[in-house]
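[job 0417] fold request received: DMT family transporter
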Amino acid sequence: MSWYLLGIAGLFEIAWAIGLEYSEGLTRPVPTAATGVAMLISVVLLAKAVETLPVGTAYAVWTGIGAVGTAALGVVLFDEPLSPARVAFVGLVVVGIVGLNLTAGQ
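[job 0417] inference complete; emitting structure tokens
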């Protein structure tokens, strides 16, 4: 259950990171409010997950989900550059997340 909560927390991290762009520097009220709500949900779910998961692993996975998802959506939604090097480095983040998941119980 904790891994599930952590995954959902990571999705909300992506939501608030993308929300920052739509809020235009926190100047637009509705996107700013939605961003704040997503931040709160993300952190609360992370806090619930670390009740049973190692905090270092959970935090790294949470930020990794956010980083990978935000980078991908940045390309799709905001025309951010997509190069082989960027894909490779995002792939390294994914490898790190998988490695942390595989070794979390050790």
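[job 0417] notes: The first helix runs from residue 2 to 22. The chain has a mean pLDDT of 94.
[job 0417] exit 0
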